Amino acid sequence: MKFLIVRFSSIGDIVxxxxxxxxxxxxxxxxxxxxxxxxxxxxxLAANPxxxxxxxxxxxxxxxxxxxxxxxxxxxxxxxxxxxTLRVKRxxxxxxxxxxxxxxxxxxxxxxxxxxxxxxxxVDRYLDTLKSFNIKNDGQGLDYFIxxxxxxxxxxxxxxxxxxxxxxxxGAALNTKxxxxxxxxxxxxxxxxxxxxxxxxxxxxxxxxxxxPDPVKIYNACGKFNINExxxxxRRAKLIISNDTGLMHIASAFRKPVISIWGNxxxxxxxxxxxxxxxxxxxxxxxxxxxxxxxCRPCSKIGYDKCPKKHFKCMELTSPxxxxxxxxxxxxxx
Length: 334
Description:
334 residues, alpha/beta, Rossmann fold, 2 domains, 6-stranded parallel beta sheet, 5-stranded parallel beta sheet, 13 helices
């Protein structure tokens, strides 16, 4: 059986599809698993041993569809479910199974604060697309594979951080998912442990501002490493503090404890940190830091450049001291 799994973006969403890839490859003995994504995100999947072939989209979707037709797939597993994936499915004309995005339920929650979302993680909703093949969740969590060439060398990490550090993810796709700069400055100033700031090139300037008061304790890695190298820095960390963003899910893939800070989005959307199935009574691997009871939250399933209400209470009311208390608990200092 030849399968095409489709998920175009983004980093976190793609990482959340990895249980589908693994379970399909390991449980369907004859499965040949292909994956279609944007070329930008190829590094996230390139080293995944459960994928037989990766196809990428850059600009011309019709050209990609023409090439995919030559593969003669048996089934298409659509984990993105948008207009472009509809074109792919129509172009291939094969039996397909699509992920339910629950858009009406999300609209009710964001527009009227009526919560009809199922208490089911998005990973399990992705896996529902494989029910017809008797594929089950193996309980092993997420995967992330780092090529040897992208493993960070010891000399590229400051000596002050060799004995361990806390990773603080300062970036996010949209500003209403980001813990504010002044809050990050205060948080990093009160944490008495080496800190590694993680993010992209677009986060470099804010990272410099956070690290400026104590550049020995706080190392700004934003923009200095590619996505796989950043993932390796997450893998090496003792603990990750993160916004609702891709590196949070990569941290879960490496079984790292996560303190997640939530702004305009909410865990009820089903995209909170996801770990291997734990024994009954085992402590949680993650903490949720969020401001409950705000009449305006969630305001969007994705986010905005600015708070629509202009007060940004969903982030401003999460104090650095409360985050630091969770840090101390995770490090066994309380």
